[in-house]
Design goal:
This is Universal stress protein UspA. 41% of the residues lie in helices and 22% in strands. It is α/β, with parallel strands linked by helices. The protein has two domains: 2-144, Rossmann fold (3-Layer(aba) Sandwich), CATH 3.40.50; 153-271, HUPs (Rossmann fold). It has a ten-stranded mixed sheet with strand order 5-2-1-6-7-12-11-8-9-10, sandwiched between helices. The two termini are 23 Å apart.
Length: 274
């Protein structure tokens, strides 16, 4: 049984995130932790000196404790309805994000209802917010759009980096049943005639965990080809390491990741090494 942390931003209840957690519970029973955060001004909470969230967070002036209590009751009702074992954690108003980080240390995966978080927190660049959440979390993160079908395909975003390989292994270990789905290992580069980095090693690894594996190399105009590839797949979930500096990572950070998050096309599994 896995321990899954499901974070709500206080006044907003993400049905999409809960539905995704419920479907994971159908695959394998889990312990679902509902973490209810007060509404905060995330744009002022990042500590540029330490590279992490500050110890205390400035709160938005208007905050509805009543709405949070209603959302907690809704969470309890949903968990009981679908037979999910659950716990409820509420963060202190002045320690919301640090407490979420500590919670993630004791969880297998953190699920964020991306649409609700970005809308309620009012962060101007959602991909930057996601980057901060991912880097501060001590477990893998899944950003989930509100209307998210159950995954039918897995896309492994491989750029040759240690983080991308780490993310692939984390996903395979956490979700062995999802790893049995049709899987595409994608290497994208703006260059031409470039070999897949460590081709033999990465194919040996992924073929063991993903029995229905296809390997694709996208050259020259990777964003166009990647968008086309995703359009051909039914209900994919994308697996990627934390943002780095390679061709694929830069592509995700500057364009494709922002498109995914802003338009909420598909769930995004992100993991990085501690």
């Amino acid at each position: 049984m896995k321990k899954v942390l499901l974070a709500f931003d206080g006044t907003n209840y993400s049905k999409g995130a809960f539905t995704f957690a419920r479907r994971l519970n159908q695959l394998e029973p889990l312990l679902l932790i509902g973490s209810f955060l007060p509404q905060i001004d995330i744009s002022s909470s990042w500590s540029y000196n330490t590279g992490r969230f500050a110890a205390t967070m400035p709160l938005q002036e208007e905050f509805s404790a009543t709405v949070i209590e209603e959302n907690i009751k809704l969470f309890e009702s949903d968990c009981q309805r679908y037979g999910i074992e659950y716990r409820i954690h509420k963060s202190r108003y002045d320690m919301a994000i640090p407490e979420l980080r500590k919670e993630s240390r004791f969880a297998d995966v953190l699920i964020l209802g991306s649409e609700s978080f970005y809308h309620q927190l009012g962060f101007e660049t959602p991909n930057e917010y996601l980057r901060m959440m991912v880097q501060d979390s001590e477990c893998p993160v899944i950003a989930v759009p509100e209307n998210c079908p159950i995954p039918q395909n897995v896309v492994l975003a491989y750029d040759g980096s240690e983080d991308s390989v780490f993310a692939i292994k984390q996903f395979a270990c956490l979700f062995p049943l999802l790893a049995k789905l049709e899987t595409t290992l994608v290497y994208a580069t703006e260059k031409k005639h470039v070999e897949l980095p460590d081709k033999d090693l990465i194919t040996e690894l992924t073929a063991r965990h993903f029995p229905r594996l296809t390997v694709r190399k996208l050259e020259n105009t990777p964003k166009h080809h990647f968008s086309k590839l995703l359009g051909e797949l039914r209900a994919p979930i994308m697996v990627t390491g934390s943002y780095g500096r390679s061709d694929l990572s830069m592509m995700f950070r500057r364009s494709f990741a922002a498109e995914i998050i802003n338009e909420h096309k598909l769930p995004l599994f992100i993991a990085h090494r501690s």
